[in-house]
Amino acid sequence: MDGQIIATVAVAIPVLGFLWTIHRDVSGLRECMARVKGLIEGFATQTASGNNRVGESSYKIREPQGNSS
Question: Which long-range contacts (CB under 8 A, 24 or more apart) does 21-30 make?
C-alpha cells in the first residue's frame, strides 16, 4: 500500500463515522418532532372543538374600551 491509499482510508473512516452520527441524530430528532406535532394537533383539535379543560374558550371577545358617547 502506498501513502495515498492509507491517507484516503484514514480520512474516509472518520468522515463515515461523522455521517453515521448525524444520521442517528436526525432520526432521533424526527421522532421528537413527530411527538410534538401530535401534541400540537391534539391541542388544536381540542381547542377548536370547544372541549377545553376550563370549559370555556381561551379567546374572548371584549367590548372596546373608551368613551361610549
Answer: none
For residue 59, name the pLDDT band (cuts at 50, 70, 90).
low
Q: Between the CA of residue 65 and those of 15, 59, 61, what are the distances in Å?
A: 64, 17, 12
Helices (H), the chain: 3-49
Tens digits of per-residue pLDDT, 12-47? 999 999 999 999 999 889 989 999 999 898 888 877
Q: Would you say 58 and 69 are in contact if contact means Cβ atoms under 8 Å apart?
A: no
3 state SS of 9: helix
Written as nine digits, the cell of 47 is 381547542
